[in-house]
Design brief:
- By secondary structure, this protein is mainly alpha-helical.
- The N and C termini lie far apart (about 100 Å).
- It is rod-shaped.
- The protein is built from 1 helix and no strands.
Length: about 60
């Protein structure tokens, strides 16, 4: 095997390792950002009352 062929194989493996490392860090940063946004969200407000439920309607005719 030629030296240049051996070195090109190593360079390709190194590039793949670096790409995977960068992608992994990017995913971790994205997950951390999502967690941070969820923690900063205000507490959920109670749901708005239903416009008809629970009201008394006079149906005398």
């Amino acid at each position: 095997m030629e030296l240049s062929s051996f070195m090109s194989t190593q360079v390709a493996q190194l590039q793949q390792t670096v790409q995977l490392s960068i992608m992994n860090k990017s995913l971790n940063m994205g997950a951390a950002s999502a967690v941070q946004m969820l923690e900063q969200m205000p507490a959920q407000q109670p749901a708005a009352p239903h416009p008809h439920k629970g009201t008394t309607i006079d149906v005398s005719v």
